[in-house]
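Summary for the steering committee. The consortium agreed at its last meeting that each partner would contribute one worked example illustrating the joint modelling workflow. Our contribution is presented below. We chose a case with several input lines so that the handling of multiple components could be demonstrated. No manual editing was applied between input and output; the record is shown as generated.
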Amino acid sequence: MDLYLNGKPITIDPQPGEMLVDMLREQLALTGTKVGCNEAECGSCTVIVDGEAVLACAYPAARAAGRNVITIEGLSPLALSPDEMIEQDELVQKSLHPIQEAFIKHGAVQCGFCIPGQIMTAYALLEHDPDPDDEAIRHALKDTLCRCAGYPSILNAVKAAGERMRTGVPIRAPEFQSSSPLEVIGNSYIRPDALDKVIGRTKFTDDLKFEHMLQARVKRAGVPHAIVKRLDIEKARQLPGVLAVLTAADIPGEKKHGLVIYDWPVLVGVGERVRTVGDALAIVAAESRAIATQALDLIEVEFEAQPVVSDPVQAYDGSSPAIHPGGNLLKHIKVRKGDIELGFAEADLVLEHEFHTGIYEHAFIEPECSIARLTPEGRMEIYVGSQIPYADRNQIARVLGWPEEKVRVIGMMIGGGFGGKEDIAGQIHAALLTERTGRPVKLLFDRHESLLVHPKRHATQIRIKMGAKRDGRLTAVESELYGDTGSYASLGEKVMTRATTHSAGPYEMPHAKADCYAMYTNNPPAGAFRGFGVTQACFAVESMMDILAERLEIDPVEIRRMNALRLGSTTNTGQELRESVGLLECIQQVQSEMESRMDGDPFKPRSSPGAEHLRRAWGFAVAYKNTGLGGGAPDKSAAEVELCPDGILEVRTSSAEIGQGLVTVLQLIVAQEFRTSPANVRVLLSDTDLTPDGGPTTASRQTYVSGNAARMAAQVLHQAISSTLAEKYDCPPQEVHFEEGLVRLNGNSLPMEEVYLEMNEEGRSPRALYEYWAPSTDPLGDGGNMHFAYSFAAQAAEVEVDTHTGEVKVLNVIVANDVGKALNPLGLQGQVEGGVVMGLGNALTEHFIVEEGRVITDRLARYRMPSIVQTPQIHSIVIEHPTQDGPYGAKGVGELSSIPTTPAITNAIYNAVGVRIDNLPVDQEEIVRQLNKFSKTAE
Amino acid sequence: MPLWKNYYLAQSIPEALTRLNEGARVIAGGTDLLLEIQQGVQPPPESLVDVCNIPELNSLEIRGKDLFIGAGVPLNHIVASQLVQENSQALVEACNLIGGPQVRNTATLGGNIAHALPAADGTIALLALDAQAESVSSEGSRITALEELFLGPRHSRIEENQELLVGFYLPLRKNSQASAFKRVMRPQGVALPILNMAVWLQRKKDRIADAHLALGPSGPTPLRARMAENVLRGEKISQTLIEKVHQVMLEEVHLRTSPYRASADYRTHLAKILLQDVLEIAWERAGKD
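What follows is the complete predicted structure of the assembly.
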């Protein structure tokens, strides 16, 4: 057929069953168009056909005959070949379409996976309507999902691009106030990876192609609890085009993987136990994905069904079947402070309430993908977007039975992680198939598989009992938590420990007692997810604080201020806080901003203008979140800084860029240390051969630990250069000055390229490696410092509840975060907004439904993350109470901004209509039932 | 196995019918069909015949006393059409809520109807608008009242491999007539409406002279609430009337509990809310002439 593609006529044969996106990506190697869900839900694959935005994943290629197709690659006016694009960055910059430029400048690009889809959707809008109002933009972008949720920045970018297209006025970046205007650090800087992301040049794993690459698929159990009685792969093996079908019996090394506990079978073998629907039974490598899929259907399995353990309270019951040899209790976690009985005796009021939170899904837009490849030297290379490359390497090597050095994990760009890309997904399976076939193997999860397999957020039951004096001062808190860690441990123990230690809230609590039971069930495994257990605990505690405040007739802000952790406070785990406690200021600032918008009490309900049934009110909540692993775990990161022959400083660490902006932070830090422009710093991440171990990208830790490692490596290199040059040019080292990419000394001024040569001539290596160890922490139960830093936050949310339907809308969110020091305000803004929107999803839109171990929400159509339409106005306030050992005072913020949003919303719902939400997510039917007092009758 | 083997872009109705007779399946926008094939809800067909390029199916025009909307007109064209906006507001409102913006650029009203789901937004609006469907086979063309078209979920009277849905005839709006559509969704879970409702009414001074009411899901097939319509005729809008219509409506439709979506009680409650909303909106619109 003939068609126009990006303005040029082409002739191409559509294949049977081929969608437009496959034709673009496979036949034409235009990988800028992404596949996020392959079910017409996420909008990532949006391209333009005859002027209209369409979903290329659900558009038959054959239908494009005679039409005009535009992809992200065709958007810039200069049509450059891929080679030209690589070589001529400046030309690319100049040829950017205004939308692409605006997305870069407005910080609308985070992980970048959805960005081609966002840009193409916006393009279609602006071509029809170059001056859209907010409503029109929201309407057009409604189903183009961004899980980093940079929606406010995306909206601003689209408006700015429209203005540029209409008037020619140059696009201006938003301005932020900096507390260090003369430094590199603290000032907004465009992400170095943004350019590639807006033109579709960024390579995510699925975008890679190798010659003779096979496609892999995994046979999943599909039953939640059973013993495998028979597994017959013969027919699958004989299918033409199938190169290998492997089962547990084929594993050369260790049979299990895991992050802390190796309890997750790589493949479940005959006679062994299936513990969740996503368990792998066999893996297939074939010449095509279609053949591999067909082979899966030819694998015959027989199970002996076992009774299903479906919730953690049931799992604790001794009569439940044991899912693992050691029983169902993964860990009993305890917090003890003071004398709980005494604390309740001292209270004038003691209240108790039970809360429930559901399972949640990360729903990163890029599904998991791994590619394995053998090098001619016989080493195994794994290309993958992973949050912990070194842990991947270790687990892959164990299962292959190889020394770790023979395995290299090469990190690709990551289309969102949020904790969901810490565990092994397809890395080991791909490696096993490559080892067997000798050929490169790609294992791409489809969305359905992604929803079933990777660990989720822990569902919890949290009972809280709280005591207070009449004046609002808290005397004691007792909490009992059950956490559903599902079928495998993953990071369950750590997550539920964090839930437990944070279950007294960021409050001075003289007496505290907490018991948590982290339980195995037959649900999909649960592990790390932004907030790491604190999200659940915060919802319970912050709801409780409002219940308490109402009973005591104290203002919700006042009761929090009265009890807030401050300098000199001791936490419930016995840690004295000696610095960097900005909670009171967060509370103050959010309160002022909220009150400046309101006449009278913001927590009193009022009606929406002209609609009596739409009730509005504000709600308030606070939170804190540790930075770093804590609890006595060694927390270190290594980074290397090298001056390259081209005068560029390269910083290297294995830490992961998952959209959060680490790459910019590292760039800024090294630039700061050398007093140069960030443009003179290059960042290389996530390669176990080329980058030293930065540890896991988790626990809001990378800015702190890898930031420090990079900073100190830069300082070591700085010193080495200074002393070398000082000696050669005969001046004191302190008179060697780094300025704007040059070194000045003794009246000389050396460009960095020359500095490189000087170092070489002197036989000094222009490279420094630094292994940074964060301040040591103490295990839970020992008192002392459980964590080396905490970040604090306050949020207020204004909601509107439709008393007729129970629907809830969030209109405004005011958020203050004490981040220690904002290193890149533009990046911080995006992270904060994204966190708030994810918190909103946690409260209102998302519900991962599992029934008797079976996943009901097994398609993206059934798991609804917030869209731009649900995004409220977000007002972000940055508070900087520096922490002494953090880089320039910075501490973590990645998780913090999403944590208090949920209780701020549910407290607002209560204030608006008097319905207390104690079960997440919010059920609009339940709201309306309570308001209208109709009963629930089962049918 | 590929999702299909042959893909035919039919340029005319006879060509499409020939392909149908050879065993091909019709594909219009394909936004529902392709997903169902991909997800194994329907087996992969040997051949698909794409009817989007057939001029007759793409026409949107006034034909005599009716507005004709071709079965292959994409939803975004329906939403943007001045003709539809003037004559069939309920349909504009419904079509603007189907899928997302990109889906609406390819999805068609014909597909929405042919899928025969009990709560398809487009279907509910067309029912209230008293639409008739035109279909064609080698025997010639026939006109069917929309309500008669549905046999059950995913099951219509359009004969597979023989018959092609061509378009819909909607009576042109006269003075003092108007329509409205509304629905309630749940943010979580299944992406289907909890309840949707469309009304068409004719005002005569301060009374409702005539009314059509449709809602879904109210049973295995989408339907009109004709007893409730009878109660509306000749009455003034009042709280008492709405209570009465609601009661009568509950007797003739079956509002059930759907797991993860809504209980029957919630639907019963919402039926009254939506009834009041759509009646008031349509009433006000009808008063503007």
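Chain A is about 30% helix and 25% strand. Chain A touches chain B through 58 residues (CB under 8 Å).
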